[in-house]
Amino acid sequence: MTTRGLFDLSGKVALVTGGTRGIGLMAARGLMQAGAKVYISSRRAEAGQAAVHELESFGTAISLPADLSSQDECIRLAGEIAAREDELHVLVNNAGATWGAPLEEFPAAGWDKVLDLNLKAPFYLSRACLPQLEKGATASDPARIINIGSVDGLRVPGIPTYSYSASKAAVHQLTRVLAGELGPRHITVNAIAPGLFPTKMTAAMIAADGNELAAASPLGRFGRDDDIAGAVVFLSARGGAYCTGVVLPVDGGVWTTS
After folding, report:
1. What is the assigned CATH class of domain 3-250?
2. Which one is catalytic: 39, 124, 162, 164?
3. CA distance linking residue 214 with residue 210, whole number of Å
4. Residue 164: active-site member
5. What separation in angstroms does the CA of 5 have from each of 14, 238, 240?
6. How far is CA 209 from the centre of its chain?
């Protein structure tokens, strides 16, 4: 196999949750550039259509709106994919939320909203998509589940986002658990732990302390679109077929050198 073939996703079908902006949009673009047909989900239909328009120059993108904070919607979305495609080859569980508040004031809603979307949804959706993933899997070219965690699930963050960091640490452990269980079914399960990328979720933080935050990375910069795209394509393609249970920091060295 040529080097190009190791990272070719032509003919593959992928689903990216939260794929209309930020990390999810970066992942969707990378998969499309590698040749995959990509379904993107978000709560708002108009956001999905805007993302499809933004991505259309890279290949085929289709919007399937869904509110994945409920198990029923996870099951419905999996059914929508099954109705359209015989096989699913890549599932990127990216949809997420955060909540910040001082310890004494942190509300129950800040736990429920974040845990429902960040932790429960990847579990429910992965389970609901298993039949389609198994149809797309072989021993030499497994189907892939990629969970988007966070460097804040590996370290203690400096801001009071208790439920967010806890949910991402749990996503990393869920990744390892599912990797052990689904490997014999020819499905790999890996996680990406991004550092600081310019997104809607991080905009206020970067506006307040951007220079200091960039300097905290040994590479001296924030993450870029290609950094996420490259990691997702690697874990989705033949070149990453022997990796499972991995939590891959994509953070410019913040975690590994701390």
Report:
1. alpha beta
2. 164
3. 6
4. yes
5. 18, 8, 12
6. 26
